[in-house]
Specification:
Strand content: 35-45%
Order of helices and strands: EHHEHEEEEEEEE
Structural class: alpha+beta
Number of helices: 3
Strand order of the largest sheet: 2-3-4-5-6-7-8-9
Shape: globular
Length: about 210
């Protein structure tokens, strides 16, 4: 990590943590992502998560990520708003409509634990879409990799993710995103493992 680190304090809330993460550029985000521990068990992420896209290596690539996700992937008058992880390693994406703010569910996923592309010594949640897309679908080669940001937030939990398309370079050109929720699960993520704090590199201006 090149810049002076900022510690998430013990009384840090989810909104503050997400705001700090949104200030990171892609390199700083990847430094934080690689520092996250391996995923222990999938049950820790079950449930609905809000989501936001992050800075992706400059204004042009960030615009492309937003267009692909909020326009093409969303398919309608709505925007991508997160993911839902169900029991049995299945799930779906969440979309919020522009007119009334309702949440709609589409684009099913399978998820499991696999070695991370961004460091083979650690495991991450691997999300795949192939089983639910036809051979001509733009999203057939789509994939995500997700890690748990292990911090003791007072009101919720935060996940970090990288999304990609196989036809556009895969995870070499992955796009950063963040998942978060305000209501902690029965087993708090902050109580798992010894690393209850993470370093966040100093950020730049908010780009989302």
């Amino acid at each position: 990590i090149d810049s002076p680190p900022i510690l998430f304090s013990k009384d840090c809330c989810v909104d503050d943590a997400v705001e700090k993460i949104q200030q990171l550029n892609r390199k700083e985000f990847l430094d934080l992502y690689r520092a996250c521990d391996s995923v222990i068990e999938l049950s820790l992420v079950e449930g609905d998560w809000n989501g936001c896209l992050l800075e992706n290596n400059g204004q042009i690539m960030t615009w492309i990520s937003n267009f692909m996700t909020h326009q093409l992937f969303s398919r309608g008058p709505r925007r991508w708003d997160g993911k839902s992880f169900e029991k049995g390693s299945k799930g779906t994406n969440l979309f919020r409509t522009y007119d009334d703010g309702d949440i709609e569910r589409e684009h099913r996923i399978d998820y499991t634990v696999e070695p991370s592309f961004y460091g083979s010594d650690k495991d991450a949640i691997s999300v795949k879409y192939k089983s639910y897309q036809n051979v001509f679908s733009l999203w057939r080669t789509m994939g995500d990799e997700i890690k748990i940001l292990r911090t003791d937030f007072i009101d919720g939990e935060v996940l970090l993710g990288m999304g990609c398309m196989g036809w556009s370079g895969g995870f070499l050109n992955g796009s950063p995103f963040c998942l978060y929720r305000k209501e902690p699960s029965k087993t708090s993520l902050s109580m798992i493992g010894d690393n209850t704090k993470q370093l966040v590199p100093g950020g730049r201006s908010k780009t989302d």
